[in-house]
């Protein structure tokens, strides 16, 4: 059964390219200073940890020289809020264009961000700036972290299922440079300074009639067939984002990556149901949390490197850019989509410990 049609996403990255080499040198200088916030011995580990991320570059809304300077929470958050709203606005504009959709066509707006806290949130700004209807339903998703993109996409599909022509916009906008610390007492804190980037990604999700297929769609896009989500009880300490005087701090339990294959295998069984247990998708769009998370997802799905390569491409060229990274991977995949339909799986895991999965079919681009 088809639930919804996902038009090709759009993504907007931070305006400043941050090279891994520059980040490494900045971190080594900062961590090497004994100031009570650092273990100076960790400075010698920065280069090795950076190599293990496999990331080539990242993109931030502010230059590294500004972000790495000591600042209060307010000094970090205020410019990040402005950048998050601006990037999201541009991503939504492009997403509406990709869907050949007018602002007045939008029924609802699903918004995900875990950084840059502010009330009113970005949705109110986007409704005004983009001229969305005043009766647009706002669905904020502010506690999902890395899972925000996949979960928002699945929720949007549920909101429009069986409502032909109803359109819901999805936008995930994160300024993850705000969790940069330049201080570390354990290796994991260094890794978080090395992997995060800033990104806004958006798409339009359109309702399909019950039983409607992808036939007649011009593409490129995805037809959503099934959705699944699951939260593992008692796992709230696996990934955390807390707020202190100098901003937000992300932390993770070393055991968290080992939980990923278990959750993914559970998702696989539920999505397939009574269908062929040996079925395998042509392509997997996975949220690329880190160089450890993607292999863990591959292990859970039993897929080969080629099936998940598009997600690796997005990660290597920007790092973990928040929940929108999976939408960026879908954008990349659809822009190079083959002439024939592909069976795909979209999957993500995040704080909670939670996972969400989508089974879909690619609608190839037509001439």
Q: Which keywords apply here?
A:
single chain, 367 residues, alpha+beta, Peroxisomal Thiolase, Chain A, domain 1, 2 domains, ten-stranded mixed β-sheet, two-stranded antiparallel ribbon, 27% strand, globular, Thiolase-like, transferase, Chalcone/stilbene_synt_N
Outline the structure in words.
The chain is an alpha+beta fold and 367 residues long. The protein has 2 domains: 4-207, Thiolase/Chalcone synthase (Peroxisomal Thiolase, Chain A, domain 1, 3-Layer(aba) Sandwich); 221-363, Thiolase/Chalcone synthase (Peroxisomal Thiolase, Chain A, domain 1, 3-Layer(aba) Sandwich). The protein has 11 helices and 14 strands. The chain has helices at residues 20-31, 46-53, 64-67, 73-98, 122-130, 148-160, 187-195, 256-272, 293-301, 309-316, 325-335, and strands at 4-7, 10-13, 16-19, 57-60, 106-112, 137-141, 167-175, 198-207, 221-235, 239-244, 247-252, 283-286, 343-350, 352-363. Strands 1, 2, 5, 6, 7, 8, 9, 12, 13 and 14 form a 10-stranded mixed β-sheet that branches. A two-stranded antiparallel sheet has the order 3-4. Strands 10-11 form a two-stranded antiparallel ribbon. The longest helix has 26 residues, at 73-98. The chain is globular and about 65 Å long.
């Amino acid at each position: 059964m088809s639930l919804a049609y996902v038009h090709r996403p759009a993504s907007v990255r931070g305006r400043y390219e941050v090279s891994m080499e520059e980040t490494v040198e900045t971190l080594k200088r900062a961590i090497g200073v004994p100031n009570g916030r650092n273990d100076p011995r960790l400075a010698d580990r920065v280069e090795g940890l950076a190599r293990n991320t496999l990331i080539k570059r990242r993109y931030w809304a502010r230059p590294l020289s500004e972000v790495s300077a000591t600042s209060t929470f307010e000094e970090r958050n205020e410019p990040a809020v402005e950048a998050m709203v601006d990037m999201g606005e541009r991503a939504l504009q492009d997403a509406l264009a990709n869907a050949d959709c007018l602002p007045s066509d939008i029924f609802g707006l699903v918004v995900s961000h875990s950084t840059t806290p502010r009330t009113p949130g970005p949705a109110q700004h986007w409704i005004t700036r983009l001229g969305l209807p005043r009766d647009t339903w706002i669905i904020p998703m502010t506690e999902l972290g890395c899972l925000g993109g996949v979960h928002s996409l699945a929720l949007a599909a549920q909101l429009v299922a069986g409502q032909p022509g109803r359109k819901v916009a999805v936008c995930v906008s994160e300024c993850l440079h705000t969790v940069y610390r330049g201080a570390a007492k354990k290796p994991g804190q260094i890794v978080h300074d090395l992997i995060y980037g800033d990104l806004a990604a958006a798409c339009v999700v359109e309702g399909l009639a019950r039983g409607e297929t992808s036939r007649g769609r011009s593409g490129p896009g995805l037809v959503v067939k099934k959705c699944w989500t699951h939260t593992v009880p008692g796992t709230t300490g696996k990934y955390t984002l807390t707020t202190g005087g100098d901003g937000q701090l992300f932390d993770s339990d070393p055991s968290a990556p080992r939980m990923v294959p278990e959750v993914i295998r559970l998702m696989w069984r539920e999505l397939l149901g009574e269908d062929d247990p040996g079925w395998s998708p042509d392509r997997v769009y996975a949220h690329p949390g880190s160089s450890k998370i993607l292999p863990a997802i591959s292990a859970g799905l039993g897929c080969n490197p080629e099936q998940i390569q598009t997600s690796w491409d997005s990660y290597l060229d920007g790092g973990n850019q928040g929940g929108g990274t999976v939408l960026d991977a879908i954008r990349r995949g659809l822009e190079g989509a083959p002439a024939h339909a592909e069976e795909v799986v979209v999957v993500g895991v995040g704080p909670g410990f939670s996972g969400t999965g989508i089974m879909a079919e690619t609608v190839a681009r037509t001439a």
